[in-house]
Amino acid sequence: MNTRIDENDTEPKRICFSAYWSEALRTAIMLRAPSDGYRIEMHGGSDDLNHMAQAVNQGIDSHLEAVQFVEFGGQHGRRGFRVTPETLHVLVRRLMEADDETGEAHSLASGICETLNIELV
Q: What residue segments make up the domains of the chain, in order of their start?
């Protein structure tokens, strides 16, 4: 898997993965996570924020991993987070594995991956 940026490209090529968690997906997320952290803002009380809170509040899980982030003040009733590049894959994995009947948590994980030019199919 080549995720390097060519001289003439402005961003890495889109790569596709199964919609199930894998070590290859973990590696791709770690390679493409912004070095200054992944910034995300959500409206207070939204379903996305609830899914994010559930994923983050698990603490250390059976993989012996935790999500590390800094919270900052969002605008217009939103809450902002900057997830460290070293733990963004943990957030995505937890969202993908969430026990969510509506599929919204998985959709949030997919949206995060899309911003990294990673498509879950």
A: 15-120
Average pLDDT over residues 57-71: 89
H/E segment holding residue 78: strand 78-83
Instruction: For residue 97, give every residue at least 6 positions away whose Cβ sits within 8 Å of its Cβ, in sequence order, or none.
Output: 21
Q: Which residue has the tokens 């982030």?
A: 69
**CA–CA distances in Å: residue 32 to residues 9, 25, 44, 86, 117:** 14, 11, 28, 11, 8
Q: Is the pLDDT of residue 55 over 80?
A: yes
pLDDT at 1: 42
Look at the pTM and tell me if it is higher than 0.90.
no
The CB-based long-range contact list for 10-17 (8 Å cut-off, 24+ gap) reads: 11/117, 12/117, 13/117, 14/117, 14/118, 14/119, 15/117, 15/118, 15/119, 16/118, 16/119, 16/120, 16/121, 17/113, 17/118, 17/119, 17/120, 17/121
b/e map 15-30, b = 16+ CB within 10 Å: bebeeebeeebbebbe
